[in-house]
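(Protein data)
===
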Amino acid sequence: MGRKWTTFMFLVLATVSGTVVGVVQMIDIPAKDGLINGFAMATKLFLAAGWCALMLLTTESFPTVVRNMGYGIQNSVTRVGSMVAPQIVYLSQHIDGLMYFLVGALMFLSAICLLGIPETRNKILSDTIEDKKHKHYQENNQEEKSKDFVLSDR
């Protein structure tokens, strides 16, 4: 399946289950607490699995010479959420479901942004930045040549 589509699948599942929690918090139904707990745990599960796959995918996307630096920057930027989370919890006390609607929206945005990252499955990792540029150039030229070949067959 590949790392990209595994991550995409988990982020979309986190989107759906997080949105369900937000909706259930807003409506009054029997067994509301059980549904909220079940879907909140599912959201956490999908989010954790997606996070692990995303860290692997993005780390493999960096060339070896900057891989540690890229991972460090990526990990630092993601910790901004830890700083914002207490404010979201505070706002969620006043607006039912806000926290999970935000989680759902951010996971959907992350899944869409993920589509721009190249798949790393069965690919040789780049050692230098020049290797990365060269591989990118070769992949783009191969796509153009295959398009020209298909057009010339007709």
User: Anything to note?
Assistant: The radius of gyration is 20 Å.
